[in-house]
Write a structure and sequence with these properties.
This protein is an alpha+beta fold and 262 residues long. It contains seven helices and 13 strands. The strands form two sheets. It has a nine-stranded mixed β-sheet, with helices on both faces. A four-stranded antiparallel β-sheet has the order 1-2-3-4. The protein is globular and about 65 Å long.
Length: 262
């Protein structure tokens, strides 16, 4: 060891040992805010080159917009990066969980939830929303980073409770411990498309159960019925999947992003 530093320069090479046999090459982002960018994941004899730009995703504007925080390096500023930070925190607590992100101006998501909701949040928990309205500068950067981190961990911690956490796209938490249901008249999900942000990955159509367990199946059904929402699902084994509706493919798209979160 040559020494230590309290601040890693932008684009500085970092090699992190996650666990025995699992190494990640990453770098600090240019603005320095949020999670480091992963470049290569080395697991045993496997070498996975990370493709943040989502080349394996279809050329579908609506889907790409929904997955923007996880597919566009240029958009990983502190506001867009918030969903990535939530995903990383959900994965880190190791209990598994689901976060449903719904439009702020609509209550249509309630049709896909069993009532009464176990833990309805009234008024909405808005700490994240208030922090996102603040502008970052040299004088408040450290304080804002710490405050965002605490708020992110609080929301991510709610997902460890049985059931799903519901948050608006303006970062206001509406409920947690919610049970997803299929509305009357809605068809069950039989097939979804899966991708992973790895160079050379190809889309594959599978039954939603093949992406995980009951939590994944429920998330796929929710997005199938609430097509302007997305669902973030963490498995206890570390897998992390983002579900979004793809109008071009006319089915739910599951994008597995755990390689971005290590």
């Amino acid at each position: 060891m040559w020494g230590a530093t309290r601040k890693v320069p932008s684009f500085c090479f970092v090699l992190e040992v996650i666990e025995p046999g699992l190494l990640v090459v990453k770098h600090r982002r240019m603005d320095g805010f949020g999670k480091f960018a992963n470049v290569v994941v080395l697991k045993g004899e496997q070498v996975k080159v990370v493709d943040e730009r989502g080349a394996s995703l279809p050329d579908c504007p609506a889907l790409l917009k929904a997955l923007l925080p996880f597919t566009s390096p240029g958009s990983w500023d502190h506001k867009f990066n918030l969903l990535v930070q939530l995903a990383a925190s959900m994965r880190a607590h190791g209990h598994g969980g689901s976060l449903l992100v719904v439009p702020a101006g609509s209550d249509a998501w309630r049709q896909s939830i069993v009532h009464p909701i176990l833990y309805a949040v009234t008024p909405s928990f808005s700490a994240l929303a208030e922090l996102m309205r603040q502008e970052i500068n040299e004088t408040n950067e450290n304080l804002l980073v710490a405050a965002v981190g605490r708020a992110v961990d609080t929301v991510a911690g709610l997902t460890a409770v049985d059931g799903a956490t519901v948050m608006t796209d303006q970062y206001e938490v509406r409920a947690f411990g919610a049970t997803i249901r299929r509305p009357g008249g809605s068809a069950p999900v039989e097939q979804i498309v899966t991708t992973e942000p790895i160079a050379g990955d190809k889309p594959v159509k599978v039954h939603p159960v093949q992406t995980g367990g009951t939590r994944h199946l429920s998330a796929a059904q929710f997005v199938h019925d609430q097509r302007d929402a997305i669902a973030l699902v963490a498995s206890q084994d570390g897998r992390f999947t983002v579900f979004a509706w793809s109008p071009c493919e006319e089915m739910v798209h599951a994008h597995r992003v755990d390689t971005l979160l290590l």
